[in-house]
Each structure stands twice: as C-alpha cells, then as structure tokens.
Fold each of these.
Amino acid sequence: MKKVVASIIAVAMVLVLANGCSTVGQTTYKGFNSVKAFKIVNAPAAKSSLHFEKTLTPGQGGVVSGSYNIGNVQVTYTVTVPAGALHNTETVTIDIPDVTEAREDLGPSPYTFNKPVTVTMSFKNLPNVPDPSDIQVAWFDANAGEWIVVPSTATVSGNDLTVTYRTSHFTYWIIIDPDE
C-alpha cells in the first residue's frame, strides 16, 4: 500500500497575491523561495509537528482531516477524495511541521488522481484576516522552477477564513503571506 501524503510544510500549498507575473494566461511566481508562508499567528516558528492519516479505498474514497489550535486560532485542513479518484487503497496523511504557519505538502509527490480531490483550509479567529480577493492557491512546478496559480475560492466571515481548491495531482503547495 502506498502512502498518500498531505503534509503541511513550507513546500506545499500557496495562497498568493493576485498580482504575480503572467505567463500565457497563468499567474506564476519564479523560484521556489519567491513566496513566504502565511503566518497564522505572529509567533516564532514552532518545533512541534502534527500527523493525521486515514486509509482510503478507490471505490469509496473518503475524507482526511486534521485540526489544531495555535493561540486562539483553530486551524483545520481537510482533503476530500471522491470515490474512484484513487488507483489503489492508499493511506492519505497530513503532516504539519510548523503549526504557526499555513504550509503543506500534498503527496505522494508526484501523485495523479483519476478524479480531482478537494482541499479545504479553515482558520477560525484569525487576528488579521486577509482580503479574500488577495488569496490564490498555487503548486510548485519543479521542472519550470515556478509556482503556478490554480482556481480557488476564499471566503471571510468575521475573523474566519476558508480557502478551497480542487486538484487532480499532489505536489508541492504553500500558503504564502498576502502582504508580501
């Protein structure tokens, strides 16, 4: 059984500003270090990490979710895999290496699904909520050396932010600071 990794690390999920450079209709950011992680709270990097996992089957799919609190902020990451999306029975995992930043690596990397999966990130009680129009999601194309923006939905309600996107593959993704 393969491990499908949905790790929340600096090389993964990107919420980026909408004013990146445009290449053939796509917004891109050149270079792996061209973006900075969105800070959930203004605190030094945490040395603690978290791990969530669930084994899913191709015929049923399922949901892998993990929540934690950092200060007054509740953070939840959810990966929803529809029936028929997996090639084989897989263990989908979410690893969070630094709970102070919204960072993830969805994997295994690379991994291509038969159908798109949905990824949702929810942040409740954020001290500083970004404007949802400033948020986008992107993946890192190692061959081109750039982050590629994909369609996403960001909503704000009071001090809560929810970001959702769909993808047919897992690779490196990161949530970056919209103020950078």
Note: The chain has a mean pLDDT of 77.
Amino acid sequence: MNVTAEPGTGHGRVLLPWRSILLVVVAIAAYAVFGAAPGAWVFDRAEVAQGEWWRLLSGHWVHSDTAHAAWDIAALLIIGAIFESRLRWRLPVILIFVTVGVDTWLWWGDPDLRYYCGLSGILNGLLIVGLVYLWRDTRHPVALLTGIAAVLKIALEITSGQSLITQTAWPSVPSAHAAGILSGMVFVIGAWISGYIRKRLRNTWPARTARWFKLTSATLRT
C-alpha cells in the first residue's frame, strides 16, 4: 500500500492497490470455481490449434494445484502492493503486453510444450518493469539487486530444468519466466522510446510557435 499526504494538510491517506486486489480476487475465484488444472482453461497446444484461443489468456489465470495457486497469487499481491502506486494505469497494460510476449514464446519458442498454466511467467515481466520504475525514481540498490537475483534465479532454473523454490503438480517452465522478463524489458524500452518521441515532438517548430503565441497572448491580456 502507498501512503500519501493530502494537499494542504499534514494527514496521510492510504491508497489501496485496488487494481492488484481485483486481479487477486479474479485469480482466487478462478481456482475456487474451476479447481486445479481445469481442462477447458489451461494452455493446451492442440486445443488452441483447433481454435480455442481463449486458453492463451485463461491459461495464465488457472493453476495446477493449491500450492501453485498460493505461490502465484501471493506473488501477485506483493508485487502489486509494492509497485502499483508507481505503475498505476500501466499495470494492466503491462500484464496484457507480457501475456502476449509469453504466449508468443509458448507457441513459437517452445513448440514441444503441450500444456502450461499459472501466473508466474507474466509476473516476472511485471516484476522487472516495477523494478525499473523503482530504480528510475529512487536509484535504490535494492531494485538493482532484486532484478539481478531474479535473472540469476531463472538462469539457474533453465540450466537445472526445474524450479529452485516451488514444487507443484505440473513441472515448472523456466523459459516462460525468462520470456516474461524479456517481454517486460521490451515494454520498458518501448515506453522510453515513446516518451523520447513525444518529447521531441513537443520541441518541434509548430509546438514552439504555438507556445510562443499562447505566452504572448497571455502577456497582452495582463
């Protein structure tokens, strides 16, 4: 949660990470209603090829067992609580972007993978974007060290072929976690390029001329 001061007062107010809480509720509801590894909702390559495209989205929000759900939902809540105040409206946009990135990897990058489920892939993308924004705003070494640790963890998992922390009914897919981080970095680079272009456009001759006329008009009225 984020605590901010009300303008003109010395009192603070608590800003709940309502977007993250809503997403947590969705994930809990999905597990409560559909149970573990629901056949109609997990990523199933054969069924996606037959036109069940919704699995590309729903597969990230269902889980293989209770432990899998608990780990992922807790991570979603923690990451959201820490970073939502910085990411704000970008949070759902990031999740959508990273979902597309992870799905792209699942489909073309790992064609032998038949089944997949869980939030962990897209959460790695959200984590890395949040850490970049935290580093940008604070230059706090914890952001940098956490990012390095996340990358090293995934590298070790890819090397060993299994998760270092969790043991769930379905085997971990570390390459999907790496795809999440790479997708998050692509989002950050794209956001930086977009901001740079907007800044350059604001400094073009028409924009400068418009600002000059606006300033001159305001001066003449005073």
Note: The chain has one domain: 2-205.
Amino acid sequence: MEEAQAEKSKEKVNVKRLLITIAIVLVTALVVGGVTWYYMDKNAKDLKEANDKEIQALEKQITILKKAETTGNNNTAASNQTQPSVPPATVVNNFLTSYLEYLNSNNNGQGAAGYVGTHASAPITSTFKTSVTTGLKYADPIILAQNTPDPNNAFTVGTVTVAGNSANVPVTLNFIESPSHIVYGLVVDGNEWKINSVKSAN
C-alpha cells in the first residue's frame, strides 16, 4: 500500500513537472515571439522611414532636373531666335551714307523730313520717323548738327553693344571744325535692325 501511495505521489510530481515545463515553454515562446515581433516591426518601420526619405530625395532631384530642363529649353529657344541678317553697325553705316548723300545733293532744303518722306524703305522705326518730322528745328534731327560732316571722311562707326533685341551704335561725325559724337539706338523690328533713337555723346 505504501508503494501505491509513493507511486501516486511520484505521478503527481511528474504531472507538476510536465505542467511547469509546458508553462515555461509557453512563456519562452511568448517572450521569443514578442521580441521577434518587436524587432520585425521596428525593422519594418525603419525600412519604411528609409524608403520614404529616399523617395523624397528622388522627388526633389526630379524637381531640380525639371527646372534645369525648363531653363535649358528657354535658353535654347532664346539662342535659336533668328537674328537679323544685317548687323546694327552695317545698318547705321548704310543709312548715314545714304542720308548724307541726300543732304549733299539738291534736296530743295527739305532735310531730314524730306529724306524720310522719300525713302520709305529707310531702316527707321515709326517712332524715330515721327521724332524726325516733328523734332529739332534748330539742328538736323538725324545727325544732331546744323552742318554736314566732311564729305571726304564723313563719319566712323564705333564699337557696337547688343543686348537682346536692342543695340547701341556709337558714331563719330567728322566735321571740319571738330568731331561730334552721337549714339544711335536700334531695335529689332520684324526681322531687321532699325534705328529707333539718336542722342548726343559729346
């Protein structure tokens, strides 16, 4: 009988040990699972954050490239604009040569107004034409002088400055008494340079 009781006690102890072992296994499994889930979740969040930062960096780079492309296209379009075939210096040179020949010929004293009235193809804007016909009364409104330059060496054209669709052409008029300096302002009108203004540079 004592042996039966001992056997029962031994069985109870074994059951307790088994239950404790199962409990330990379950707790360990829960702990390991929890830790694993925590690190997996943390890694997923870190990976998502890294991906978001990379996406933002790429989007920023794309924006920069688009701006650069737009700027490049604008610059290319500007550089591809067809410039007039006759440069500003040549326009002024030909115009003054023609005008001074007119002044030195028998023009019945009509001067600048007579010239623009009879030379419809002259390279001048409507603004300049108006200033010529309604401008200076005491001096020639095209060369800003009362006399004509020396016919043997009437004028010289200086260094031209061009900015986009406008240009300044300095000219020295060689009068017998002393030279006079003026600047013609030109603009692109249609597909050619035209004189739009004149001012003294003395």
Note: The helical segments are 2-79, 88-104, 111-118, 126-134.
Amino acid sequence: MSDKNGHRHFSKAYEKLFIQQKVYDLGLYLWPALGKINKEQRFVIVQTLMQEFNEIKKLVFVANKKYSKKDTLRKLDTEIGAFKMDIQWANDLGYLKDPQFEVIANCIIEVGQMVGGWLKSEREKSGTIDADGKEYLCSACGAVITKRISDYSSTHFGRSLCYACQKKVSKK
C-alpha cells in the first residue's frame, strides 16, 4: 500500500502513534543532513547521532507496546536530552547548517514535549501525582507512592510512607 508520495505504509495492522510519525519524519530529514558532514568528522559524529536516534526510535516503539510505560518514558526523555545536546554540539562546531539545525531542533523539541506530556499522563493514570502536578513521595525514603498509600499512611502514621517504610515504623 502506498500513499501519493510513493511511501509504503502499513494499513490498520500497524498501530501508529503521532509521536512515532514525528520520529519517523525526523529520521527522514536527519539522514540526508548527516550525510553532508565532511568525511573527516563523519564517522564519529554521525555514528553517535544515529545511535541516539535509533535508541529514541526503539524506545518510542517499546513504550507504545508496554503496559507499564513510566520507566521506558523516563529513559526516552533522557535519551532525547542527550540527542538535543549532541545536535547542538554538531551545530556549534559547524557540521550542520543553521537551516538544517533549526528544522532538526524544532522536531526534537516537539518530540520531547510529546514525551513529557505522555509521561505526565502516565503518572496521572497511576495515581502518583496530585492535582498540582506534584508526585506523591515517601517522606522517609523518597520512593514514588500512590495517593491511596499516601492517604492511608498519613492517617495511620502521620506522614506519607511507602509500604516498606510503614513496615519499618510499625515494627518499632
């Protein structure tokens, strides 16, 4: 199945997220831009950027398929941060032209914002975030806990505690 531009696409059998399409579009623009970097520097810089891009692409796919997405999304967010920094570095060293850099940087920023929104949505679903957007944390060890656990421990122990810390306090 092809679209009007001749690109092959999977039909309904392939479930695509909007973020997957953005990452795909970034790749379509990134490959030719990196191919124009001079041969002396191409190997190290292009290899690093493409490894990071491929990791981002993989993590987006994995996050879409996993039931528990938070850890994968956090790793994806970190990978995007490293990728942004390396793209900035390549631009500052003159390996990317300014128009190329602008397009790539804007696309990376959009993907980063999507991941941030996705991560926030996952936190809200799991009940580990309050109405103000702050996470519920154990006051003893700093672990992320749900609202239900926080409410229970506040009532019975006078502060927010995770299960492990509740057990420690109750044994004393």
Note: The radius of gyration is 21 Å.
